[in-house]
Amino acid sequence: MSIESKITIGNAIEGECYVGKTTTLETIKNTEGLREKGIIIVPEYSVIGELPKFPRDTIQDVKNAIQRMIDLEKRRTDKLASDLARTNEATVIFDRGPVTCIAFEKAAEKAGFKSATLWLAEAFQREIEDKNILIPNGMIHLTASKDTIKIREADRIKKGGIKVFDFLRDKDVIESLNDTFSLFGEGLPKQLFLTLETDHKNPDEVCAEVLQFIRGQTSEVSDTIPDFLSFAKSLL
Description:
Oligomer: single chain
Number of strands: 5
Number of helices: 9
Mean pLDDT: 88
Radius of gyration: 17 Å
Largest sheet: 5 strands, parallel
Shape: globular
CATH architecture: 3-Layer(aba) Sandwich
Low-confidence stretches: none
C-alpha cells in the first residue's frame, strides 16, 4: 500500500498567530480515544527545524529561504511517512501547510521586504508533482478578534513564549495574511474549506467543530490536490 493511499484526507490548520492552531491540535492529540483511531498530527515547520532568517537582504537570501522551506517540507513528509508506516489508514492534520508559506511571502512583499511568492509556489508545485512531498488537501482557517489575539499573545509571552516578527503584528500585513487564506479556501471544494471563529470557544469546543468538519469529508474529494502555482499567480 502506498503512503498516499493510507491518508483518507489531509487538512491543514491555518490562521494568523494566536488564533488557537497549536492549542487545537494539542487538544485533538490528547482527546481520549482519538489516539487509537489513526489521527496523525504533522508538526509546524518551526518544530521540524530552524526557519529561514528574516528579513532577507539579497536575492540569494530569498533563494536560500525557498530551499530551506522545501527542505523543511520534505522533512515533514519523512516524519509523516514514518508515522503512516505504523498504520493502515489515517486522518492527517497538518499544523500549517504550503499556503501559509505563500501567505507569509505575500505579506512580506506588502510590508516592503524581498519576497518570493511565485518562486516558492513554483518550488512547492514541482515537489508535489514529483511526489517528493505530501501536502494537505483541505484547510481549516481559524480566526479571532484583535482583542482576543492581544490577550492570548500577552498570556503566551508571560509563559515564556517567543514574540512573533514585528511586521506580522502590522494591521495591513495581518489583513493580507487572512485575505490570502480566504482566497485560497474559496478555490477549494466546499468539503475542504472551513472558516472557524475561536473567540468565545474553549479548546474542546474548537476541537469538536474541527473533527465534525473532518468527519463530513467524503472520499470523492480525497484526490483533490491544490494548485499552488496557479493560486500564487492569481495573487500578482
